[in-house]
Design goal:
The protein is mainly alpha-helical. It has three helices and no strands. It starts with a helix and ends with a helix.
Length: 109
């Protein structure tokens, strides 16, 4: 997780610069007064809002969620997650015929 945080901080500057340049390029669309501005103004507002919210979610919320999920998964045991320690690793359970191969169980039953 520390490697992800380190690489995230290295990518922070390029991501913010890209979002800022795109946002500044859409500002004239938001303040349009000429012909067609009734279409351009709402479009500019929506695109700027989407760009700002997606940048916030990517840079702030996702790392927080990753850290939270890592804390939950590293502090729990299989018994706490509802799994038994002797459970079948493939998740299909035991065959009715008692074997471990599902194809063989269909042939014998």
């Amino acid at each position: 997780m520390d490697e992800a945080i380190t690489s995230g901080t290295l990518l922070l500057h390029p991501v913010l610069m890209t979002a800022l340049v795109a946002l500044l390029g859409l500002v004239p669309l938001t303040f349009a007064n000429g012909i067609g501005s009734e279409v351009q103004r709402p479009l500019g507002i929506v695109v700027i809002g989407g760009l700002a919210s997606s940048t916030f979610l990517t840079l702030i919320l996702l790392p927080v969620l990753y850290r939270w999920m890592e804390g939950r998964s590293s502090g729990s045991s299989p018994e706490a997650d509802g799994q038994q320690s002797g459970a079948d690793p493939d998740g299909f359970g035991e065959d009715p015929a008692g074997g471990s191969d599902p194809e063989q169980a269909r042939v014998t039953s």
